[in-house]
Amino acid sequence: MRNVLRRIGVIAAGTALVGGALSVSPAAADDTLDVQLLSITDFHGYLQPPAAGQGGQIPAGGGTSVTVGGAAYLATHLDRLRSGHPNSVFFSAGDNFAGWPFEVDAFQDEPTIEVLNKLGLRFTAVGNHELDVSPSFLVDHMANGECFGTVGVDSCFTDSTGRRFHGADFDFLSGNIVDARTGNTIVDPYRIEWFRSADGKRVPVGFISTTTQATVTGSTSYQPGLRALDQATAINRYAKELKSQGVEAIVLNVHEGGSPQNGADLGYNECGSAYGPVIDLAKKVTAEVDAIVTGDWHARFNCMVPDPAGVPRPIVETGNHGALINEIDLAIDPATGEVIRDRTRSVNHAVTRDVAPDPEVQKIVDHWAARGAERFAEPLATQTGPFTRAANAAGESTAADLYADVQYWNANRTREGKADLALIAAQPAKGSNAVRTDLPYAKGSHPADADGRILFGESWNAYGYGNPVLTVGVKGRQLDAILEQQWQKQADGTVKFAPLAVSRNVSYSFDPTRPVGQRIAFGDVRINGLPVHPDGSYRVAALAYTVVGADGYDAFAGYTAPVRNGADHESFVEYLRAHKEITPAPLNRVRIKG
Length: 594
Description:
By secondary structure, the protein is α/β, with parallel strands linked by helices. The protein is 20% helix and 26% strand. It contains 12 helices and 31 strands. Strands 1-14-15-13-12-10-9 form a 7-stranded mixed sheet. It is globular.
């Protein structure tokens, strides 16, 4: 049984969560080894200071707020926090990349790795977004620096030092994401760090990482070749394994969500009766775990939560986009290697912008900002007319039809992904719209633009939100049910029209005078000129967000044999490189009867 020393103020089992904003100071006592844990989460490639609406301004409590974020400011704060702490480690709870800033997204997120390498990140949990491309992309490219495609065009870009991308100098960890075929974890489940006490003794601390179980079927990270194991089971297994190796101090670094109640108004060091799957997970995780660092929900809290033995331990989250750094002072008895819980403290520090930005990190940020501007201006293709989201009476538009054709092309590039048709939510029933902007023919405001010219950045902004195109199997009657969901009854009795665009090889008609759910007849839906049969099997290419029901078409439920194809932004760029001139198609795929 864990020998927890000096349990001052121990919280009884079942006691409510309490705030954990406590003062952290090195060398709490001469007889302890103080290990400083510094962590961030959900950085998402925000190298430049984020705007207020992107997490650049957060509540500080008492009705006040603070302006935060930016990699160069993060570096300055990290240096200040590390000062005077000989035993310090900096790590992340996941979702470091696969974010939204164009200057990192358009360069395969390699800029984020360069910055994190410079910041001295030692290891990270695998977040769901770390798997937005593939396990191979994570392990072979991001971790090990292997190139793909054309060097300097598709991957392995030149960094701020003039060298080619070489991968992460830190480890990716997850103990519960496994290969569906072999059952083996795709990366190591834990890491052991060694720290030296005042008398020279080396003391180990184990860091276990797991990943939210929703990753495998998430709308961006959808990976049919992976399986997610139960996190609590995996954590308890690896805690036992660490104990067998003589590791007594154990930290859980998990990418799983939680949030304080009324979190939008609380200061970043409050607890606020935190709830969510990570709080539920903490109740199942062995008392051998001494602290829990988490992420995923982009929330901010600092709590002390009773473990299953009733002894409080920190559970923290630092928001997103580089807004906060969490600091845990892990007090360890060097004689036993045990964590002294009542001397262990946690505090979230705001990454304020009232300090001088680190010049070396700022150089990296500036390099990629300039490269992003250059890439945005690259001409990809030409168009003979405008593609707009303006819909006709049947809900059809030239922009949505184009993106449906892109998805059809994307899926049919491989035998595994081959699709009979493609669908895209032109005006989704709920959630995000992948048909984001028009592609006008007339020259835009960008200096590199011209009439009929499509710039790289314009294509990136026009379609998609970082989703893969999936090819899934449905029966004919299910396909009809999906199309019927374009009309949905609302609570007030009205009917909402949420049109789906179809690829150019599909046509159908509908009768708006018929009851909802009965507006499309089977004989009126044709694929390659042939009518859809109720018992026929069809392969549909659609964004994962649509397939999993996130934008309101839950008739996809029960789909079979999913295959992941290319992601939206990248596949549109590839489509335009393969189709150097595109022309708006006539709006004749959908017809209104009568």
